[in-house]
Amino acid sequence: MHFELDKGQKDIQRAARDFAKGEFDKELALQLEKDHAYPEKIWKKACAEGFIGLHFPDEYGGSDYGILENALVVEEFCRRDSGIGAALLTAHFACEIILHHGSPEQKSNYLPRVTGGECLSAGAFTEPMHGSDITSMSTTAVRDGDDWLINGVKTFITNAGHCGFYVVLVQTDVDAKHRGESMFVVDADLPGIEVASVGEKMGLKMIPTGEVSLKNVRVPGSALLGIENQGFYQVLQFFDESRIEVAAQAVGTAQGAFDRALEYIKGREQFGIKIAKFQAIQHKLAEMATQLELARLITYKAAWLADHKKPDTKLSAMAKYYAGKVASEVASESIQMFGGYGYITEFEVERFYRDARITEIYEGTREIQKNIIAGQVLGKLP
Amino acid sequence: MRTIMAIVEVVDETALELAHAARSLGEVHLTAAVFGAEDAGCAELARYFDRVVNFPLSPGAVFDAEHAAAALTPWLAAEQPFLILLSHTNNGLDLAPLLAARLDLPMLADCLELGLRDEQLTAVRTLYAGKVHARVVADAKGGALATLRPGAFDGDEAIDRGGRIETAAVPPGPPARRRLLETVAAEAGSVDITQAEILVAVGRGIEEQENLEIVQSLAAALDAEVACTRPIVDKNWLPKSRQVGTSGQSVSPKVYLAIGVSGSFQHLGGVKGKPFLVAINQDAAAPIFAVADVGVVGDLFDLVPLLEEKIRARKG
Amino acid sequence: MNIIVCIKRVADTSEAEIVIQRGGQGLEEEDFAWGINEWDNFAVEAAVQLKEQHGGVVTAMTLGGEDDEEVLRRALAMGCDEAVHLCDEAFAGADAWGIAKALAAAVRGRSYDLLLCGAVSGDAGGGQVGGFLAGLLDLPLVALATCLEVGSGNGGTGGVARVRHEVESGLERVVEVDLPAVVTVQTGINEPRYVSIRGIRKVAGAEVQVLDGAALGLQAAELGSAGARVRLEELFLPPRGEGAEVLEGSDEEIVQRLVEMLHQRGGL
Ligand SMILES: Cc1cc2nc3c(=O)[nH]c(=O)nc-3n(C[C@H](O)[C@H](O)[C@H](O)COP(=O)(O)OP(=O)(O)OC[C@H]3O[C@@H](n4cnc5c(N)ncnc54)[C@H](O)[C@@H]3O)c2cc1C
Ligand SMILES: Cc1cc2nc3c(=O)[nH]c(=O)nc-3n(C[C@H](O)[C@H](O)[C@H](O)COP(=O)(O)OP(=O)(O)OC[C@H]3O[C@@H](n4cnc5c(N)ncnc54)[C@H](O)[C@@H]3O)c2cc1C
Ligand SMILES: Cc1cc2nc3c(=O)[nH]c(=O)nc-3n(C[C@H](O)[C@H](O)[C@H](O)COP(=O)(O)OP(=O)(O)OC[C@H]3O[C@@H](n4cnc5c(N)ncnc54)[C@H](O)[C@@H]3O)c2cc1C
Questions:
Q1: In terms of CATH, what superfamily is A121-230?
Q2: Chains meeting A at 3+ CB pairs closer than 8 A?
Q3: pLDDT in tens, A24-43
Q4: What is the ipTM of this complex?
Q5: Any C CB within 8 A of A295 CB
Q6: Which ligand lies nearest the alpha carbon of A130?
Q7: Domain span including residue B157
Q8: Mind listing the pLDDT tens digit for each residue in A149-161?
């Protein structure tokens, strides 16, 4: 057993760090947040340098790396800037489903556009009435000759209105609950698609999040993604991977807040001494550092397992649950260390906190992660 | 008496600094080797040096390090001085290490102080762009070479030493392996920062090109011109004509506001005439604070807009 | 066009607090961010661009400890073809002369048209290694290049380069230099590319050649601190001297004071 990244992985980590250092900028981030604007230029550059979808195969514009390498990039990006980092990691959201279940045509049509920076992707699972519970969908797809007609409303959809296509989870057999769910890749410019705002968000302000309504959206048979009525299982499999990415986002965000707090306490003086000399601050720091270490370890382990063909539902859920919790707590404590300044946007840690909170909500709330973990630990109760 | 040779590119202040540093080492016999100097130049040097050796240049030629190294190597090998001194200028960077290697001498580069301890040459030099100083020592029994940071030493006082002036015989060497094609003057900019009374100089602390706006806007409020450090020009964020320093412009404003500038000697080398120097930098250990009149330790992104606001308010 | 580019891993201390170790022989390095010397990054880019135009092989070379391999891998990912790591515990404490001697030993016997160095290093910054190499290898030198073009040149058998370089008072000169030659590269000569993921991927399996003192044919007395002509006596923090009057207080107060001072002393 050994606990060190290999040389290539360290190279990737450094490359991501260099890129983030060169391209991300605090003032820019604050402005983008204010304007609710996507970091378009940085995203295009990140694509050009191969950071987006590096875990996709070569032929689709990736670099054949694994989930762990992707996690390292996500972590470095979010560490430098939680907002820009999140915007970049969601640029390829749900593409892994195409990668694993798509037809050769779907893969070569959609994936290179995402890795090449032509468009963003989106995954539309959540509905107004179906959030944590996706065991049945109100959105339906009904056959019409060779085509399908899709109807329904999806909400909280990342990149809605700014993406090239949606991966949509629908009911194809309305009587079969989760055994009747299927997936489609739906081009974003098709007639019948409308996007509305979900309102002002707490964080992730650079990323568009919208409600997508689909009215008689006609897609060809070739838009079916994977196997009919297997959509639910395809999503679960996807979450096993994507939760690792969210965990990496959480680790990076926590580390970014921690870095800033650490620098601050070394400089700030009260009662005539540096506040880093107060034991109360030191203990807080020790806890944060320990939490961070644990969150990183479990995230890397979950990624390593997935890359070694042993994807582990329980560990992915644990990683996301724990790293998400750590991100919220570490960012919150970082604000505390900054005192009043922590509450001021300029000092960044409040933004890291706002961006951290989502990691406990999307791709399964922390309660849902615990349900999964408990389910896996208990097995089938008699 | 120990002999010291100063290699002088042009007759200017740096030559006097070399002389001063050499004299500070005790009783020495001091020679200046100079290239293509006019009679007046030689005479001027003879006031400070005990001997002036002029290496003639062919008509139209200018000082060239490759040529100088070829001419000096055999001459210095024959003269065997105790110490060879050069200025740590661009030409010095081109010539000194080459000379040290050819003569197989220990070299102390970019010295701020120079001293002698028995047969050892000691020097203070900087590390990490001036954030750390190091005292280093070289065994000078068989001779040594040192380059001195321009401006770090006082210039020597003229006491007219009535130095002997000679012309060196440069034996024809092999054909030069490096040939001058042309000299390019710095491109003239639309503004001339050398004429400005107030300069707002911006450095790498500004982080992004877009952020230059706050500095430009401050400069406008002050009726000042914007100047900058080299990295800003390297990134093409501002034209070369606004760069202050040894490879840019020399300026002598009344007020110099350095914002996000660390204060490298190459940058400060272009700031002449002792302006009222204000530095804004978030690193309390930045070398700029050692030379500034007034320092503000803080984030320029907070301070610059605030400063502009207050200045505009005061102007009414 | 075969090129050897000498690179060095240095600490970026611009955001770090400097703490000198007891004894004054080193610095506390925990806070340091390490990376390729700024000037060397430009040199690598210049080498790779020349190769992209003219073909040939670019070899990156560094002398340093095990961790320093990182800059070689980086250079490979940027497009260098080969990497040579001069690594030997006996190199510890080497001065610029010792470094240049070892580099020269490694360079001898290789076929190259250009030997590129950074103009100076960001840590010790003596700007000597390139010139020493030229002296040791008996090659022409051009320091502080801001533009570099080559006509021909095919592995050390001649050709010329046109180099624009900085001289005094903001002037630059264009020279023609016979190849092989040593050129030291100034910042701003190009826009160094990022290390891309695809670049890293391409060199994932690349081998770095490791050479120790024996492999270079160097004697123990020439290596490291034993062979150093310049010894470090002591590191110390620069004396503050008179220093600046540092304004204290809230931003509001500070700026107000500053405005007053600018009026009084700056004559606004
Ligand atoms: C910024 C943002 C971006 C998003 N992006 C996307 C996207 O791109 N695509 C997409 O499909 N969705 C997206 N979502 C939706 C997100 O995945 C859901 O919000 C999340 O799954 C929770 O669903 P819900 O909001 O309906 O909450 P609910 O399911 O209504 O949950 C409410 C509360 O009840 C708890 N709860 C629910 N069930 C249980 C249970 N069985 N046991 C214990 N507690 C339970 C939850 O943990 C939570 O605390 C996004 C959300 C946000 C805020
Ligand atoms: C031969 C040669 C010639 C050269 N000629 C020149 C020349 O003519 N002119 C020149 O300028 N340089 C020249 N240089 C380069 C010089 O060595 C330095 O690298 C350069 O001057 C550094 O520029 P800087 O101060 O902008 O950047 P840095 O040294 O990187 O300093 C940036 C500073 O900004 C501060 N900072 C960062 N963020 C903030 C913030 N938010 N708020 C406040 N402060 C902040 C940092 O603390 C740091 O001190 C030359 C170098 C060589 C080798
Ligand atoms: C903390 C500290 C302690 C030191 N202690 C000593 C000491 O005790 N004695 C002493 O003499 N020096 C000491 N040095 C200086 C150190 O050994 C220098 O790095 C060395 O002298 C090289 O010279 P330079 O950095 O001036 O290189 P420069 O001549 O400024 O570098 C120019 C170029 O040379 C090339 N180059 C330089 N070094 C290497 C390398 N290792 N591998 C490949 N290419 C290279 C690069 O292209 C570089 O851009 C110390 C430095 C530090 C930071």
A1: Butyryl-CoA Dehydrogenase, subunit A, domain 2 (2.40.110.10)
A2: B, C
A3: 999 899 999 999 999 999 99
A4: 0.91
A5: no
A6: 1
A7: 2-167
A8: 999 999 999 999 9
